[in-house]
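Write out this protein's structure.
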Amino acid sequence: MIPFRQAAFETAFGTVSQLTQSDLPEVVFAGRSNVGKSSLLNRLFERKSLARVSSTPGKTITINFYRCGDVRFADLPGYGFARRSNGEKRRWAELMEHYFSSGRNVRLVVQLIDMRHPMSADDRQMLSFLQETATPFVVVLTKADKLNKTERAAREKAMAEEFAFLDSVILLPFSAVTGEGVEKLRSVIENALA
């Protein structure tokens, strides 16, 4: 059992040169800017402000690491935020490429997608990359509480087509507000680390 409530912020890295070697199994959180990664982490760890939440997209510009027992959780910077300089976008791309190609002990990528909208081209590219590199992943559909029953049924039907390009995928509706999906996500993470 992972002691989720004992999670603590460990460090943050913003450039390739700062990124230290991986010495623990890692669970990685990825997704577009403003998809709800910080809110999900706070709910997962049962902490109100462990990960800083902002209504402004693109606030997380570093890889933030959290330590939880013998596991490290990595919160990647959000992608797809248009108001970034070309230099910033290049730095982000180099950081991500180095992160995934440096032999880290990545046990699971938790790919977040806003349930209210079709996946973006960036989301699709990330999912294709994870599938091509045989990296274990789960898709967490955030902001599930913002859909009414009819809207949710329509999105679930549409998602069957949207995700058809993946061989097999776990789609996990999640709400940081109501707690929907928290226990299932913890179970998926523990199984990936077992």
